[in-house]
Design goal:
Length: 111
């Protein structure tokens, strides 16, 4: 059979269970926290630039943000605005872990 090195060993010493969901960041809660800090860049607004920026980042123990990565770009102005919103919204009240959040820049509404 497979050697012991092929067996996944959970860090906690117990098998995966339903409680794993509770110790991961909640993307909806994170999105709601970030949304309040989104500032539509004046230049982008005046030029009618719209788009969705998808960010992936890590929430550290204590709520700080690390490893902010643009997964889907909407151009340099909107990317920068999205990244700024994440940094201003931190520290997050959230379990640590990776999270992926879409930020929609629309001239009608910022979601």
């Amino acid at each position: 059979g497979p050697g012991p090195d092929l067996e996944p060993i959970p860090a906690s010493g117990v098998g995966p269970g339903p409680d794993l969901d509770e110790i991961a960041p909640d993307p909806r809660a994170i999105h709601n926290a970030i949304r309040g800090f989104v500032r539509y860049p004046r230049l982008a607004r005046s030029r009618g630039v719209e788009g969705t920026v998808i960010l992936r980042f890590r929430i550290m123990p204590g709520g700080a943000v690390a490893n902010v990565d643009i997964v889907t770009s909407a151009g340099p102005e909107l990317d920068a605005a999205a990244e700024n919103a994440v940094r201003h919204a931190a520290p997050f009240v959230s379990p640590p872990g990776w999270v992926k959040v879409p930020l929609v820049f629309s001239l009608d509404v910022v979601e």
